[in-house]
């Protein structure tokens, strides 16, 4: 029986398969048509496998392809000259990919060696020599080594854990060296005190400190007598010594960090949220003790510990006093949650993030589409996997990254800030692990189809959304769907090309669980009412009437089929699109507020233009062209006199020190005083220095007018103004007034 | 660097210093010497910046101005002629936590210490170097210095100097790694304070030339500029000095000069009249030498002992049959 249009419509609308042929599709392995080129990923050169850096370098991960390319650039010259080397090395790279795809593990060096041996075993001796030379030459140029990992189920956990170790290494090394430094400096204080003691200056200590060679030459008793006769101040107060010893003891016994980021008594990686939180709480008293010891050490080293002020503060110092800045000193906690779909796990994750403490959570999302059934009372099919990251972003102070495993390498620059920051972080990652396809293909398809878009929300990178939210890692992010040109061969062996899009319906077609929602249609029944899903989705409900959505599938023989999907999948695709639109708006693409503002601005401008035109039409024509030119000049001319006096009056305002300039009192331009001591040495009562050591007249009656005039004459910068004589009976006034004249 | 707790605790401490906290012996400089004003400006700076005296060190060479550390109640090092800078570099590299000031005279810096001066600029270590340039050797009683004006009669140049004076600012601006170059005049003490403050706050080697009057051997060198404020050119900019209204009323001659403009700085520096004062050049991007030299290990007794043992072991001769 062949399905007619009515039967297809019944399937699409009601899920009724009764009019369809007995499902032959179930016997076939259908896949989305765009998967055609990705049957064997190990034959392709792409982002995976990755190499996790063995050392503590800024670059913590690099793809195998990038590593080989960099080495090739150094050794193989461009063009035909380097062609042989390039081919040989790319063959070796291919061999490494095959080894990794088969489950081989190890570092790049180890896998390189195995692949090289395999290649050498396949060629004859004459070729082997050149091959060996070329491969070894490239090997010497490899500047990156470490464990090689593929995009498998464990990738999210291994990759982020590796990055977390790198970020912790920096932090732990920093704190460890700081603690060492403090211990050293505190020991110096105790050592200096000991060196001042009678024991240290005694003959015995002096003798032991010199070594054995010159014992007979020195008279240590005499030396001790001399040293002991020199006063060295008070010994360290007992209380201070005790405080320093206690701080040293806490600093030395801490279990949070070790040298070079090595293992510590405390672990910081967990697979259970509640255990991580319990460990954090359990260690709080020790954290408080360490922070207290560090703080006391810092004060002691600077000699700033004031017992009258600080004793009570530090006596009551406990975990309640710890703030974000203090917690930032310590390693962060990594929590790996294997199945974040579980409701209890979701609650636990959000609970942990809500604390605001530096927990770094890697949540593995397994079932990103959710359940198509409404039995559980949910209608979130299609967008369920995105919920966790969305909720975490709502907490506002949490670093959030949502990404499929396949995009993690491209988003590596964004991973580290989340791990290094002092805030909580959530990495919601779809690994594609339980898919029937390879994890990489499943993960990449989830991103392509908008079922699991990539984005980053980093509250530390700015105050506004434009700085915080980034929609990187999504193909064609300005469009609803990622678009592709699909080429195939028709029955007449002619190449055909078709523009298509990868939608959530295509993604679900790759998952066998949803097979019952598709019905394949033989080519002879294809008709013009069948529309590609992406075209169908663009139509409104009225236009959809009589139309049936289909997607392109291929079977195991790469034969192309059309499959009609049912209404539930179309609804799920619409939900994905709505969610994608919201993300686009957050990322500044097609933002509705901006669009509205733009429309409003255009309307306002249009209105203004029309108003101007209306006024211009009403106004009488100018008598001559010169009048319009002269008008602005007049305005400037009338404004100028108004501004100039304002500036002049500001300049003429006298400063307070110059207040005496118009009076008969003596005065000094204090601001210009160079502290040369001339006047103060002449009369220290009449002239004095202010708090800034600049001269002023403290008491004009504390000396004679003669002294004022002499001070004015000897002042190097001539800033003393003697004023008028205060005592009219002072002898020689006439001559003094004449001498004072230049300084008035 | 300190923890959040320590920072909070330290904020509560009374850190307010007064000028007397930085004053030591009564200066022995001549009455009317320009050094007095610079001393006061720097003591005010220390007070305003709340520099703990025990965390501050003044290092000088030889000359009138090099008596400076004696008059500061901080750590000090009165060194050898021309060698203030190497000592200061040694202090800074071993104790980067200290506030290091270098006080030199024109003979100290521009004659015997020239090599150190050039290389100190190159090394760009975080310190404030101030040249008190009075254009004469005063301590040794009147000999011409590299900055003495042309024709200056002195004990070493009885018929007057024949060489054009060296311009320390132009020279410093010509050194590739220069990061802060400024000029002040001792007779505008408020401005001197502000310029030195800018230099102190700059991370890197701040070179500040202070034109200084010598009342004994070059009595009238700067009289015309002291008596006529309009012959001083004050450089101001939003990234440089802000001229106070009080000073602005006395000194009317201003120029808005962007301290990042090195070419204009060179033009200004080469002009002698009016005398430019202010921040001529500043580059905050240059690395400091001490930042490259942070040791990765602490210099503990154990580290030294371990290092020496390793070195000595290289020369150990193992007799036949001995186990290593």
Describe this structure in words.
The complex is a heterodimer of chains A (744) and B (324). Chain A has 744 residues and is an alpha/beta fold. In chain A, 46% of the residues lie in helices and 12% in strands. A seven-stranded mixed β-sheet of chain A has the order 5-6-7-9-8-10-11, with helices on both faces. In chain A, strands 1, 14, 15, 16 and 17 form a five-stranded mixed β-sheet that branches. Chain A has a three-stranded antiparallel β-sheet with strand order 3-2-4. In chain A, helix 3 packs across helix 4. The radius of gyration of chain A is 42 Å and the shape is extended. By secondary structure, chain B is an alpha/beta fold. In chain B, a hairpin with a 5-residue loop joins strand 5 and strand 6 (143-144). The mean pLDDT of chain B is 92.
How does the overall form of chain A come out from the CA principal axes?
extended
The helix-and-strand class of chain A reads: alpha/beta
Mean pLDDT of chain A: 85
- Structural Rg of chain A: 42 Å
**What oligomeric state best describes the polypeptide chains here?**
heterodimer
Number of helical elements of chain A: 25
Helix count, DSSP H or I runs of 4 or more residues of chain B:
12
Widest sheet, order of strands of chain A: 5-6-7-9-8-10-11
Provide the structure class of chain B: alpha/beta
Largest sheet, strands/sense/barrel of chain A: 7 strands, mixed
| Weakly predicted, low-confidence segments of chain B | none
Strand residue content of chain B? 15-25%
């Amino acid at each position: 029986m062949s399905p007619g249009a009515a039967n297809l419509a019944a399937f699409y609308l009601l899920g009724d398969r009764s009019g369809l042929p007995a499902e032959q599709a179930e016997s076939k392995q259908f896949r989305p048509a765009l998967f055609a080129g990705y049957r064997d990923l190990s034959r392709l050169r792409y982002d995976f496998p990755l190499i996790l850096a063995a050392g503590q370098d800024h670059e913590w991960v690099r793809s195998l392809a990038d590593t080989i390319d960099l080495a090739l650039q150094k050794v193989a010259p461009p063009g035909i000259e380097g062609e042989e080397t390039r081919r040989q090395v790319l063959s070796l790279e291919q061999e490494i990919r095959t080894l990794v795809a088969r489950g081989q593990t190890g570092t790049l060096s180890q896998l390189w060696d195995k692949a090289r041996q395999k290649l050498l075993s396949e060629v004859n001796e004459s070729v082997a020599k050149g091959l060996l030379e070329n491969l070894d030459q490239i090997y010497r140029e490899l500047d990156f080594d470490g464990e090689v990992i593929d995009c498998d189920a464990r990738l999210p956990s291994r990759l982020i854990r590796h990055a977390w170790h790198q970020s912790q290494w920096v932090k732990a090394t920093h704190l460890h060296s700081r603690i060492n430094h403090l211990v050293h400096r505190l020991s110096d204080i105790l050592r200096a005190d000991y060196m001042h003691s009678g024991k240290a200056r005694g003959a015995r200590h002096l003798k032991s400190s010199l070594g054995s060679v010159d014992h007979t030459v020195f008279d240590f008793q005499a030396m001790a007598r001399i040293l002991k006769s020199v006063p060295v101040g008070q010994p360290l107060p007992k209380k201070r010594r005790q405080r320093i010893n206690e701080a040293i003891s806490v600093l030395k016994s801490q279990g949070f960090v070790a040298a070079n980021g090595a293992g510590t008594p405390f672990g910081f990686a967990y697979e259970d949220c509640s255990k991580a939180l319990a460990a954090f709480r359990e260690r709080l008293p020790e954290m408080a003790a360490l922070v207290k010891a560090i703080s006391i050490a810092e004060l002691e080293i600077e000699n700033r510990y004031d017992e009258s002020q600080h004793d009570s503060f530090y006596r009551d110092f406990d975990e309640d006093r710890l703030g974000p800045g203090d917690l930032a000193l310590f390693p962060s906690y990594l929590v790996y949650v294997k199945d974040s779909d579980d409701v209890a796990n979701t609650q636990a994750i959000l609970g942990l993030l809500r604390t605001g403490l530096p927990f770094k959570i890697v949540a593995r999302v397994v079932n990103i589409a959710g359940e198509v059934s409404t039995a559980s009372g949910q209608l979130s099919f299609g967008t369920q996997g995105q919920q966790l990251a969305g909720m975490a972003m709502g907490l506002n102070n949490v670093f959030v990254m949502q990404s499929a495993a396949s995009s993690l390498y491209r988003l590596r620059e964004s991973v580290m800030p989340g791990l290094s920051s002092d805030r909580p972080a959530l990495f919601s990652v779809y690994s594609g692990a339980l898919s029937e396809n390879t994890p990489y293909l499943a993960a990449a398809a989830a991103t392509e189809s908008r079922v699991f878009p990539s984005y980053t929300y980093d509250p530390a990178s700015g105050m506004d959304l434009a700085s915080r939210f980034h929609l990187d890692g999504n193909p064609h992010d300005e469009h609803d769907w990622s678009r592709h040109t699909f080429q195939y061969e028709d029955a007449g062996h002619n190449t055909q090309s078709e523009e298509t899009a990868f939608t959530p319906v295509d993604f679900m077609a790759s998952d066998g669980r949803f097979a019952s929602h598709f019905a394949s249609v033989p080519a002879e029944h294809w008709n013009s009412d069948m529309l590609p899903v992406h075209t169908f989705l663009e139509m409104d409900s009225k236009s959809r009437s009589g139309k049936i959505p289909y997607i392109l599938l291929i079977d195991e023989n790469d034969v192309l089929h059309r499959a009609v999907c049912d209404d539930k999948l179309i609804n799920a695709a619409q939900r994905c699109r709505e969610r994608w639109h919201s993300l686009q708006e957050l990322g500044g693409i097609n933002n509705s507020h901006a669009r509205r503002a733009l429309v409003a601005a255009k309307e306002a401008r249009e209105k203004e233009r029309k108003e101007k035109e209306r006024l211009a039409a009403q106004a009488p024509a100018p008598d001559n062209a010169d009048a319009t030119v002269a008008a602005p000049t007049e305005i400037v001319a009338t404004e100028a006199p108004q501004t100039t006096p304002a500036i002049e009056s500001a300049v003429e305002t006298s400063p307070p020190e110059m207040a005496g300039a118009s009076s008969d009192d003596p005065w000094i331009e204090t601001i210009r005083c160079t502290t040369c001591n001339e006047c103060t040495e002449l009369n220290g009562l009449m002239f004095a220095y202010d708090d800034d050591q600049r001269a002023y007249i403290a008491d004009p009656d504390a000396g004679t007018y003669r002294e004022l005039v002499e001070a004015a004459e000897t002042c190097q910068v001539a800033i003393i103004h003697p004023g008028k004589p205060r005592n009219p009976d002072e002898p020689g006034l006439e001559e003094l007034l004449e001498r004072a004249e230049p300084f008035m | 660097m300190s923890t959040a707790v320590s920072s909070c605790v330290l904020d509560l401490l009374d850190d307010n210093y007064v000028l007397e906290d930085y004053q030591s012996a009564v200066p022995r400089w001549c009455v009317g010497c320009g050094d007095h004003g610079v001393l006061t400006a720097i003591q005010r700076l220390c007070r305003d910046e709340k520099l703990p005296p025990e965390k501050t060190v003044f290092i000088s060479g030889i000359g009138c101005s090099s008596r400076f550390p004696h008059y500061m109640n901080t750590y000090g090092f009165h060194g050898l002629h021309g060698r203030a800078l190497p000592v200061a570099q040694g202090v800074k590299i071993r104790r980067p936590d200290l506030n290091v000031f270098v006080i030199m005279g024109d003979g100290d810096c521009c004659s015997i210490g020239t090599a150190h001066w050039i290389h100190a600029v190159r090394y760009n270590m975080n310190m404030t170097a101030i040249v008190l340039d009075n254009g004469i050797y005063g301590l040794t009683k009147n000999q011409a210095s590299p900055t003495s004006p042309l024709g200056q009669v002195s004990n070493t140049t009885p018929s007057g100097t024949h060489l054009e004076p060296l311009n320390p600012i132009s020279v410093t601006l010509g050194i590739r790694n220069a990061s802060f170059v400024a000029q002040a005049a001792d007779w505008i003490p408020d401005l001197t304070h502000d310029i030195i403050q800018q230099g102190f706050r700059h991370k890197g080697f701040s070179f500040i030339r202070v034109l200084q009057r010598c009342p004994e051997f070059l009595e009238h060198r700067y009289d015309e500029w002291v008596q006529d404020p309009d012959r001083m050119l004050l450089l101001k900019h939003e990234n440089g000095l802000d001229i106070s209204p009080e000073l602005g009323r006395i000194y009317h001659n201003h120029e808005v000069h962007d301290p990042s403009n090195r070419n204009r700085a060179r033009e200004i520096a080469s002009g002698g009249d009016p005398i430019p004062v202010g921040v001529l050049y500043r580059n905050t991007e240059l690395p400091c030498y001490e930042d490259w030299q942070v040791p990765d290990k602490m210099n503990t007794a154990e580290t030294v002992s371990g290092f020496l043992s390793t070195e000595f072991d290289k020369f150990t001769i193992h007799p036949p049959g001995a186990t290593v």
